[in-house]
Design brief:
The protein is of the alpha/beta class and 231 residues long. 36% of the residues lie in helices and 24% in strands. The chain has a single domain (16-112, 119-225), classed as Rossmann fold, CATH 3.40.50.150. Strand 1, helix 3 and strand 2 form a beta-alpha-beta unit. It is globular and about 45 Å long. 42% of the residues are buried.
Length: 231
Amino acid sequence: MEPEGKAPVSRVVRSKDQARASYDSMSRIYDWLAGSSEWKFIARGIGQLAARPGECILEIGFGTGKSLLELARAVGPRGSVEGIDISPGMLSVAAARVADAGLGEGVQLQVGDGAALPYEDGRFDAVFMSFTLELFDTPEMPVVLAECRRVLRPGGRLGVVSMQMDDRRSLMTRLYAWAHEHYERFVDCRPIHVEPTIRSAGFEVLDVIHMRMWGLPVSSVLARRIGARSA
């Protein structure tokens, strides 16, 4: 369901098996394909999250692992970072990167689905994801956010970097939406209504950074889990 008065968000039609196969095939070259253009936006989101020494942090959709290094360094030896990604190929690349950086003891990775997190309630101080929430189909995004809320401690932080729906429907936004609809294997992210989607999942939005990538809006949102634990 779209927020009232907002432009519709396109649906995700490929299966998760197809997504897994696609990311497996791209895992060795993903940094060359998209990592460099995405990184400055991801780095802003990591800075906004402001991980602290001793914290336990989860990254959903860790990709090739560049964010994991920054988070692990921020939490230090008293903290821990866990990561979950749908792609075994991405896990292989990320695990090698973490090991090469000498951070393997503080980072635990596994293959899995962000819509069914294999962690106990209230485990994490913060959850981070970048260019990941918009990969889920529209009805599943609230499920992913409910899982984030469940595994966060009360008052825990959520950091989301995502393509943002442009309500003005600019030419670049319309062209990108067309490319996503016709070539989803290669243009898999699509713009979403980031802030209202996060708010409706039981989070208080604390800060939003608005940016542009290739003329397309990107939002970095910092939110806080409110209320009692989800059932």
